[in-house]
Amino acid sequence: APSDPGLVERARAARERLGEKAFVLGHHYQRDEVIQFADVTGDSFKLAQQAAARPEAEYIVFCGVHFMAESADILTSDAQAVVLPDLAAGCSMADMATAEQVAECWDVLTEAGVADVTVPVSYMNSSADIKAFTGRHGGTICTSSNARRALDWAFAQRAGGSGKVLFLPDQHLGRNTAIRDLGLAPGDCVVYNPHRPNGGLTAEQLRAAKMILWRGHCSVHGRFSLDSVDEVRARIPGVNVLVHPECKHEVVAAADQVGSTEHIIRALDAAPAGSKWAVGTELNLVRRLAKQHPDKEIVFLDRTVCFCSTMNRIDLPHLVWALESLADGKVVNRIEVDKETEHFAKLALERMLALP
Ligand code: 13P
Ligand code: SF4
Fold first, then answer.
1. Which residues bind [4Fe-4S] cluster (predicted)?
2. 67 close to 89: Cβ distance less than 8 angstroms
3. Spans in the chain with pLDDT lower than 70
């Protein structure tokens, strides 16, 4: 639905009152009504870089989800306030790995005698606690646009190919990157289930594995299936299937192209007029791309899959409230990571930002 003109006007007025004091970041999965007020849009990697590159902004208004705002707080100075317009904008994938569960997993790896040769690699889509665990144990963060470089880096930390990676929390991104980009065999990967004793794995299985994948997934991308791909290929002859690496391995294997949201945007920008695309990522982005490219046929990979409900929590009323409060000098919904967590999480994030 088109945005309420009264709210658009209020957002514009508050934005103007704030001027350079505020910087508004918008993830590609945000609603159009919110994206129109973003000073910069991006995938999670670009937004982390952009947050770190704005030391002059007093307020960073993060239109995205909680883990992204936490990362922005970690990468900005104490004097800057990171604001999440709706505190209920979490991420179900990030919630699938808690600090207690991950500490227990490390104990299991220690018992099996493999912790010493294991480097944690954590997807950006994780809480600050998990990022701090990663930093403490010599690991790095990655996003969907640099997962390959992060894994190359992690395996290079242990000489002679003796190393292992604990990848959390998205098993699909971990498996897809290991198999597609690093050429590992499916059998090199095991899945650690935090809800089962010892992760559901024996010490032998842990010793034999190269990739230990946390049993987490994205509730949006995890719903695309091989049937979605088969159905769209039958319905639209000549269609190119383009999916995000948070999709299941069988979906990624059946697709024509795979990449982060920034990759998807670039691929469609570069596509010739008349080409046909079925895109497997969040619906707000796919709809926006279809609108921006009327000369190409762009459809959503599976009509039964929906928006990311937590990304959608940030709507125009919440953004207006946040901007007006800030313009009145009142900081609302500030996301602040405690000092110790921040210290170790920053180590891990900086390792990512320094990846070649
Ligand atoms: P990217 O922004 O890295 O493509 O990740 C997608 C996502 O699911 C963010 O929540
Ligand atoms: Fe989390 Fe998936 Fe939503 Fe991204 S799209 S915020 S990974 S649930």
1. 91, 218, 308
2. no
3. 1
Asked if the structure places residue 257 within a domain, the reply is yes
Contact indicator for 65, 87 with CB cutoff of 8 Å: no
Same domain, 255 and 279: yes
- What per-residue confidence (pLDDT) applies to 333? 98
The binding site consists of 27, 44, 91, 123-125, 144, 218, 244-246, 261, 308
pLDDT at site 45: 87
* Residue nearest to ligand 1 atom 2, measured at CA: 43
Question: Per the annotation, where are the binding residues for [4Fe-4S] cluster?
Answer: 91, 218, 308
Instruction: Annotate 86-118 with DSSP letters as a single string.
Output: -TT---TTGGGS-HHHHHHHHHHHHHTT-GGGE
Domain that includes residue 36, residue range? 5-90+310-336
Q: Residue 212: inside a domain, yes or no?
A: yes
pLDDT for res 62: 98
User: Per residue in 18-74, pLDDT tens?
Assistant: 999 999 999 999 999 999 999 999 999 899 999 999 999 999 999 999 999 999 999
CATH number at residue 82: 3.40.50.10800
pLDDT tens-digit readout, 161-195: 789 999 999 999 999 999 999 999 999 999 999 99
* Number of domains, the chain: 3
pLDDT of residue 1: 63
CB-based burial, 134-153: b 16+ in 10 Å, e otherwise = bbebebbbbbbbbbbbbbeb
The binding site for iminosuccinate consists of 27, 44, 123-125, 144, 244-246, 261
CA 270 to centroid of ligand 2, rounded, Å: 26
Mutate to test the pocket of ligand 2, among 65, 260, 264, 301 (most ligand atoms within 8 A of CB): 65
Domain boundary among 279, 300, 321: 300
Q: Which atom of ligand 1 is nearest to the CA of 260?
A: 4
- Biggest alpha carbon–alpha carbon distance for the chain: 63
In a domain, 349, yes or no: no
Phi-psi sector, 302: left (phi>0), alpha (psi -120 to 50), beta? beta
Q: Say what the ipTM of the complex is.
A: 0.97
Side chain identity at residue 3, one-letter code: S
